[in-house]
Amino acid sequence: MNEKASVSKELNAKHSKILEGLLKQPENRECADCRSKAPRWASVNLGIFICMQCSGIHRSLGVHISKVRSTTLDTWLPEQVAFMQSMGNERSNDYWEANLPPNYDRSENERFIRAKYVEKKWVSKKATQPTTKPSEKSSNFHKSMESGTRSGIRSKTRKLSLEEEIFTNHIAQIAPPAGRTRWGSLDLNKISPPEKGPPFTGCNTSLNKGNATTDLFHLPYVQDAKPRRSIASSSYYSSWATFE
Question: Where is this region: Disordered (predicted)?
Fold first, then answer.
């Protein structure tokens, strides 16, 4: 998820007012590199405000050197605003221009900016490079901005409807336990063939001649050894012989 999407309109408006106030401070009224008036861009990882021309040069350095944002057009994260509050042009240049000769020629902006931030030609040998970790004051401000206590923003949570709550409870009940799969796989190699029983010897067609009440309808059908036509034909001709 994009972090900028989590910034609400109210929080973004609050950030714009803070940045506008920082730009009115005396040390931030000029570009940190070329000294031009009214800068409207910033490097969020260096903590400086710069003009539009220098912002294009900063973009060419790569995001590993400088991350450029507009103070009026882009969406800022709370930690970025907090770092800009803790730094500013004066504190940043105390490190990057510590050994810069007085009245140094800044006319060649690109060459000057590359020597300043890429080659680190005039950095302070005693101090460490400022990082994006905010100070204790800015950290407290960052926490208050996230919780919404200073801006009056309340976290909005939508309650589930009755249908959604019933559906959620139903899904939780039918869900399989952890560590168990819902469907098992069938391994055909593990299926054993059926056990062989005694050979089929046919139905028992013998009738008990002494039992005259045998139910013939429940006996299996067995084809007689002699064809029926021969039996019927012999009875037919014998009956006609008696009639004659």
Answer: 124-156
* Whole-number Cα distances in Å, 93 to 104, 114, 174, 223, 241: 14, 14, 63, 114, 141
Strand order in the sheet with 41-43: 48-50, 41-43, 68-70
Model pLDDT, residue 151: 45
- Secondary structure class of 3 (helix, strand, coil): helix
The three-state secondary structure class of 68 is strand
Between the alpha carbon of residue 60 and those of residues 64, 68, 80, 96, 224, the distances in Å are 11, 10, 21, 19, 105
| Structure tokens that stand for 235 in this block | 């009875």
| Entry pTM | 0.55
**148 conformational bin, left if phi > 0, alpha if psi -120 to 50, beta if neither:** left
Most confident range, picked from 1-15, 83-97, 166-180, 205-219: 83-97
Task: Please classify residue 117 by burial: count the beta carbons closer than 10 Å to its beta carbon, then call 0-12 exposed, 13-18 middle and 19+ buried.
Answer: buried
